[in-house]
Design a protein that fits this description.
The two termini are 22 Å apart. The longest helix is centred in the middle third of the chain and has 28 residues, at 27-54. This protein has one domain. It is elongated and about 40 Å long. The chain contains 4 helices and 2 strands. It is α+β, with helices and mostly antiparallel strands. The protein has helices at 4-18, 27-54, 64-74, 83-86, and strands at 90-96, 102-108.
Length: 109
């Protein structure tokens, strides 16, 4: 996933949340946002599938893009997740390791 994509969508969500721009009332913007969020859902699922194939699911595999996705997606809970991606049900699991640094993982619920 390209890191820049989630940034655009969380900015739209933030503007909407603050009441500066009601993106849901503008059909063109809302259509773009809905399609973009669904596109991000697909890519986060692909990231998880790559982790299962090439990595260790419980290892520290949470990057900037995944954090940005989770933040952006939190503004659009009213956009349903496609059934294929819904089964994955991505969650963020954060813990501290022995040295005290924070580690994150994308995992199934």
């Amino acid at each position: 996933m390209t890191a820049i994509l989630p940034v655009y969508y969380y900015r739209y969500g933030h503007l909407d949340h603050l009441g500066i721009k009601n993106i849901r009332s503008d059909d063109k913007i809302w259509s773009m946002v809905k399609h973009g969020v669904l596109y991000l859902d697909e890519h986060i699922r692909e990231d998880y599938e790559e982790i299962l194939k090439y990595g260790i699911p419980d290892d520290d595999n949470l990057g900037y893009e995944q954090i940005q996705y989770l933040y952006a997606r939190s503004y659009f809970k009213d956009i349903p997740i496609h059934a294929r991606n819904q089964k994955l049900s991505i969650t963020l699991r954060v813990r501290r390791n022995a040295t005290g640094s924070i580690r994150g993982a994308i995992c199934r619920e």
